[in-house]
# Entry
Amino acid sequence: MTTPSMATPDTPDTPAVPVVPSSPAPPSSPAPPSSPALTLRRRRTVLAVCALSMFLVGVDTTIVNVGLPEIGRGLDIGTRGLEWVVDAYTVVLASLLVASGALADRFGRRRIFRTGLVLFGLASLACALAPSLGALVAARAVQGVGASMLSPVALAIVVSATPDPRERARAIGVWAAVFGLSMAAGPVTGGALIGAFGWRSVFWINAPVAALALVLVALFVPESHGQRARRLDLPGQLLLTATLGLTVGVLIEGPRLGWGSPAALTGYALAGLAALGFVLVERRRPEPLMELALFRRPPFATAVLGATAVFVALNVSLLLTTFHLQHTRGLSPLAAGLATLPMALGATVCAPWSGRLVGRYGPRRPLLLAGAFTAAGGLCLVGLDQDTGLPLLLTAHLLTGTGFGFANAPLTHTAVSGLPPSRAGVAGAITSTARQLGSAIGIAVAGALVTGAAPAELPAASRAGWWLVTGCGLFLLAAGRVARPAAGRGAE
# Structure
C-alpha cells in the first residue's frame, strides 16, 4: 500500500513539488530525449499515459486492502495468509525498483514499460482466477514484478519527454496529484466492486486498464534510453530480495511458529546472513545495486528511516482499520472504504502544500507537522474498543493522512539534497525502496498483532499497533528537529 515520491536526478534544483508516496524515483541518470523534441500536445499525452499506469499501481495497492476480509472468506484463509496476499506484492516491488530502472536505461524505457504492463495485466487475471492461497500469492508476486517496471520507468519517460525544468516540475506535480487520487479511489472503488461483484472483481478491473495503456503506449510514447546504461548487479539483487523476503516472512510467520522456536531462530539467522552478504557484495561492486556510502550521510540515513516509518504507520493504520470496521463492527466493504476517505483526503490536500513549504522554508517545518499529525492520529486510537465512536475513528484517519501528506516531500528533499545529479536518482530510488519495505513491515506487524484474535478481541489486540503509529510520528518529530532549514534562513 502501497502507496508519492519523486526525484529528478538531472535537475536537482527543480522547485519542490508534491511527492508521490509509493512511486519510486527515476533511474539514476535519465537522459534528455534521444528523439526530436515533442510537441506540447504530445508531451501532455505522454504524461497522461504514464500517469494512467501510476493510477493503476496506486489503486491496486489500496483496493486490495479493503477486500482482505472478503478474500479471506472466499478462500477460507486466515489473517496470516492475507498478509502474504499483500506482502508478496510489496516485497517483490521493493526488491526490483532499482533493477527495473537499470534495465530500462539499458534496453529502452518504453520496452520495459510495455513489458511491465503485460506482466501486471496477466498477473491480475491470474489473481482473479486464483483457486487457492498459493496461486493468489504467486500471482501477486508477478504483479509486483510488473509494477516495478511501471512506476520508476514511467516517471523516467516523463522526465525524458519534458526537458524544460519548469514544465517538468508541473508534470511531476500532476503525477503526484494522480497518485493521491488513486489512493482516495482505491478503497471506495474496491468496496463498491466487492459489494456488487465479489472480491475477484478488484483484480478483473486491472486487465482492461492495462490493455488500454498498452495501446496508448504503442501510439504515443517514444522510446528513450539512459545516457549511460548501468550494469546489472545480479548477486546484489538476489541478496536484497532474500533479505527482504526473509525479514518479512519471519514477521508474518512468527505468531504461528513461535518467536523463540528453532524455525524462527533459523529465519533470524538467515535474514542476518543475507543482509551481511548484501553489504559485503555491494561494497566490492564497481556499480552496486545500492550505493551504501550514501548511508554515511546522516541526513540521507534519517530520510530513509523516516520513509520507512511513514509507510509502517500508514499500512498499520489501514490494515487495523480494515479488520476493525469489517470484523468487529460488521461494516460492509463499501462502508469501510468510505471510512478511509479522510485519510486519503488529508494526504491529497497536504502533499502539494508540503512541497511548497519545502521550497520556501526547507524540510524542517513539514517534517515537524508530519510527526505531530501522525503521532496525534495514533494517540487517538490507543484506547480503541468496541464502543469507540466513528467520529473519533474518522478524526484519527484524517490526522494520520495529513501527517502522511506532509512527510513525503521533506523526506525526498532530505535524501537527495546536496548530491550531484548522477547520485540523486539513486538516492531517490533507495528511499522509494524504503517506502515499500515500510509497507511490507507495517502489514506484517499489524497482522501479527491481530492473528488469532476473535472479532470482539480485535480492538484490544490492535492497541500496540496504534502505539507503533504514535512512535513513528515521534520519530518524524525528532527528524524534523535536526533537519536543516532552507539556506539563508535561521533556525525555526
